[in-house]
Amino acid sequence: MRALTRAEWVVVVCACCALPALADSPRENEIRTFLAEMEYAHARHNIAAFGNRCVEESVFILASDDAAGDATVVGKQESLRMLERFWTNRRLVSRDIRLLTCAVQGDVAYVTLESSDHYGDGDEASKRSFAVLVCQGGAWRLAVGMPLFFRLAPHVKQVLPGTPAAEAGIQPGDVVQSLDGQDVYLAGELTAAMEPGSSQAPRELTVLRNGQELRCSIPTGAAGIAFEDRLLPDGGADFLGPEQSHPIQDHLQQELAHLKDLVSAPAPVVTSPFLRIMPLPDRPAEIFTERTIASAYRQIMEHSARFVDTESMRLVDPGIIVQGPVALAAARTEAVVKSNGQLISSPTSLHVFARLDGQWRLAAVLPARVLMAPGDKARQPSQPAVDEPSNRFSGIGVHVGLAKHGLLVEGVLPGGPAEQAGFRQGDVIVAADGKRLAGMEVEQAVKHILGPEGTEVRLLVGRGQVPPRTVTLTRQSIAFNGVSHRMLPRQLGLLEIRGFNQDTVEATRQAIEELTKSGAKGLVLDLTRGGRGPLNNMIGVAELFLAPGQVLFRIVRDGENARDVSCREPQMTTLPAVIMIGEETGPASELLAGAMKCTGRATLVGQRTAGQAAVMTPVKDHPTQPQDYRKTGDFLIPGSGAVFGKGVSPDVPVDKTSRAELLKRAVLLLTELLNT
Q1: What 8-state DSSP symbol labels residue 129?
Q2: CA 100 to chain centre
Q3: What single string gives the DSSP state of each residue in 52-105?
């Protein structure tokens, strides 16, 4: 079996068969009907029907067989001419299409396909592809087609401590391979399959972790586990993070500059044809071409200017997946809210780039809500109920996920209205103020629960086999992030960090400031519960405690020169510190603890950490299996060596005990240090 040529590939994304069994939703039924029309047009070689009923104003991106060559970008008319030549020249006998994934939101659907062609001369060819469908005027049409060099895989986003999932050994970052032996591709489907009542027997999750396949048995409905979709490189593609330079990063910055100044700043360099798909509330999705792109940018900025200070907008954490002359890129946009001065962050659209004549050009801009950029989320099967991307919201204080009959309560935030009303993990919120939540996306459903602080919301809540009960809660402002703090006796402050995101550095800064104002003479830093996240966020926290120039660790990548990572920002506090660590300390927290120990800045107490911190690189394992990773480098702590497999050892070892008992030991140790 051979691979398709560039000229033949375009017809693969134009040819689909009926979908395999999917959930019976009206939108998916419409897509099945549309795909049947496409298959009929192919079978009859009816180019008129194909062009009139199946293809929208379109962009098809063809990758060169030579990784150093250019891509080819064609529009609707050229793609139809190529398709007609293909029917004539290749004598297509049959086409077998295997649907890998299908994600629908509103008027936009993303599908990934594996196609096998059988020709009149007995030859065969196969190709995997990615396509975007758009619904306009009640009819679905094909809008974008491109090679499939990325894939969607459910990741474990969060595991609540003390829950069955935690006891079964599930860890954040695990890649879910199968449920009860069946392959899974979307986090939303996985969350729905794990909801209460879906099965009486325990469910077996197969996950990949550091190249190893693990099987874990957990009860249904009370697992304490949250999933999210991640977009990963596949088929030999490379992922480039913020620290790796690439011309596409300049293109992303140029687009933002143009958005902020539509008159003076140059517009992005685009291909011809070019498409930008914009989903609109209460209206069909709108498609912009290279001729109307200026109108799209005006709409974006007019909308943004109502809510945020557009001059404050900036890109952070750009990620790029590249395969030869085609690339997919996205970042996060930060901006200051006009009404309250708060800094918020949200994912950008997905940007598709093609290299033409040696120059990267923007070929398509796709909504970010269906898929997600590397490291970002688009579907939100489990999330705090928030009304905007920030760490404070006005709601009831629960983590929620998608359930068949509404929203599944996957965690209850301490001190919130839900906890006070007796909510438990596993409860299902069926309705809010009389509005049934079944069938809604999580983001849409939580909007019925959120509202101004002090207002009431009436919820219908189910639990197991007990009839649903009606509960009225008063919404309150709830802070939610990975940082918490409080004063302890003896003028000591407790600071806990459970994760590192874009808000962790500022939240830690504010916590230190408040503890200092409250009279803290020393700090207990609790890193025993989790601690994952981007490296730059962890470095930002370390810089609050350490002086500029101090070396945190050394990065040693395979085949590359070692690189020291040092503090650059001014030190915030010199208060004596004791750090609590243990077996559940996450990889980012391991590096923070190790850096604080090697510099003599803090004393570590507890148990040796698990040794998870390492430089990991995505690697192709098998085309039908979830993305795996391989270790390609180490983080070395000065005077201690590599963290991976060895962990960070405490200065004061303590046998495994409860967190409360470990805190008592840390307080006693810090008190002794202050008195010496």
Answers
A1: E
A2: 19
A3: HHTEEEEEEEE--SSTTS--EEE-HHHHHHHHHHHHHHH-EEEEEEEEEEEEEE
Task: Give exposure, 290-322, as e/b (b: 16+ Cβ within 10 Å).
Answer: beebeebbeeebeebeeebeeeebebebbbbbb
- DSSP code of residue 481: S
CB neighbour list of residue 31: distance below 8 Å, 6 or more residues apart: 19, 102, 104, 109, 133, 140
Whether the bond into 147 is cis, omega within 30 of 0: no
Query: What's the rounded Cα separation, in Å, for the pair 93 and 80?
Result: 19
Instruction: Please report where in the chains the tokens 């459903």 appear, as a residue.
Output: 445
Instruction: Return d(Cα 455, Cα 142) in angstroms, integer.
Output: 45
Q: Which two tokens stand for residue 620?
A: 């192709």
DSSP string, 377-445: -SS-SEEE--SSSSSEEEE--EEEEEETTEEEEEEE-TTSHHHHTT--TT-EEEEETTEE-TT--HHHH
User: How many residues comprise the chain?
Assistant: 676
DSSP 142-198: EEEEEE--EEEEEEEEEE-TTSHHHHTT--TTPEEEEETTEE---HHHHHHHTSTTS
pLDDT tens profile 556-589:
877 677 788 888 888 999 999 999 999 878 888 9
| Beta partners for residue 144, in sequence order | 59, 132
User: The CATH number of 151-233 is which of 2.30.42.10, 1.10.10.10, 3.40.50.10300, 3.90.45.10?
Assistant: 2.30.42.10
Cα(3)–Cα(125) distance, integer angstroms:
5
Architecture (CATH level 2) of domain 402-479: Roll (2.30)
Q: Is the pLDDT of residue 491 over 70?
A: yes
User: Are the folds of 2-148 and 483-675 the same?
Assistant: no
The Cα-based distances of 527 to 194, 462, 667, 671 in angstroms read: 30, 36, 15, 19
Percent of the chain with pLDDT over 90: 17
Instruction: Please answer whether residues 197 and 221 qualify as being in contact, where contact means their C-beta atoms are separated by less than 8 angstroms.
Output: yes
Rounded to whole angstroms, how far apart are CA atoms 395 and 453?
Answer: 7
Beta bridge partners of 575: none
Topology (CATH level 3) of domain 238-366: Nuclear Transport Factor 2; Chain: A, (3.10.450)
pTM of the shown model = 0.51
Largest CA distance in the chain: 89
Report how far residue 278's alpha carbon sits from residue 263's, in angstroms, rounded to the nearest whole number: 22
Pairing of β 522-526 and β 577-581 = parallel
3-state helix, strand, coil in the chain (%, to 5): 20, 40, 35
Residue 413: count other Cβ atoms within 10 Å of its Cβ. 19
Q: In whole angstroms, what is the distance from residue 179 CA to residue 164 CA?
A: 16
In sequence order, the β-bridge partners of residue 590 are none
Under CATH, what is the fold of the domain 2-148?
Nuclear Transport Factor 2; Chain: A, (3.10.450)
Place of tokens 């005027």: 137
Q: Which residue bears the tokens 């795996």? A: 628
Lowest mean pLDDT of 225-239, 419-433, 483-497, 586-600, name the range.
225-239
List Cα–Cα distances, 305 to 256, 294, 300, in angstroms. 14, 16, 9
Q: How far is CA 13 from the centre of its chain?
A: 26
Gap between the terminal Cα atoms of the chain: 76
> In which element (H, E) is residue 432 found?
strand 428-432
Extract long-range pairs of 417-426: CB within 8 Å, 24+ residues apart: 417/473, 417/474, 417/475, 417/476, 418/473, 421/471, 421/473, 423/396, 423/398, 423/461, 424/463, 425/160, 425/163, 425/222, 425/224, 426/196, 426/221, 426/222, 426/463, 426/464
